[in-house]
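During the reporting period the student researcher (J.K.) took over the structure-prediction task from the postdoctoral fellow and processed the backlog of single-chain submissions. One of the processed entries is reproduced below for the supervisory committee.
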Amino acid sequence: MKNNLHSPAERPEFIRKQFEFAAHIRDPENNPVPDGIEDRRMAIYRELFFNNVEDFMASSYPVLHEILGNDRWLAVIKDYFANHRAETPLFPEMPAEFLAYLQNTRQPESNDPPFMLELAHYEWMELAAVREESEIDWSNINPDGDLLNEHPVISPLAWILNYRFPVHRICSDYQPTEAPDQPSSIVVYRDLEDEVGFIEINTITALLMQRLQQDTALTGSDALLSIAQEMQHPNPEVVVNGGRDILENLRRHDIVLGTLK
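J.K. obtained the following structure tokens:
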């Protein structure tokens, strides 16, 4: 039997009231107060729901909040609250819903910062790293292994991110109006103390990590020599020696966990 609860005429009275109640709270300018309820009482709910959402989003996206300024920020949250249809009721998923709104629902405005979506994604990624539930299987990892002659293991709690703008540097005092010639590559990671951090990486580091993630048969030296060959570097040993330092630095950050046993 077809469910017609989405059709107002088919809804029981108490469900119609619930829809009217929710519609008014989400968008009071376009949905009147339900019949029989004082506006004074509805104002309590309007403020409670909106303020909770706004406060949570502001703490989840602090840099974006600061960049936009309070008036523009509140206008964005108001539009999100009124027009975005969330895919989940779970409170911890709200930052992901807000990112989806910015990417898919909201209509860009002429005065939006050109880095707005990338900055929002970066701030969300920091939150996602905290909540990631992947676990490290230490049974096949030697933390003190030889990173050149064995296969370096990249942590499942490390993510390579590529952006047109240097989102990790954006703040109230640095707001580029155009993307630099060189894009930014960043590793967001959660270390063994469950602290989230990031490091900016160059092209060689990004390629090295990607190779090691894709092929567990490669030693660190193998991966670096293949990169040197692609670069047509006249002295591959220079790349290998520099790569050793890169791998050791990644190990210090718990991005490389050790080597495969």
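The committee noted the following: The longest helix spans residues 39-60.
J.K. will present the remaining backlog at the next meeting.
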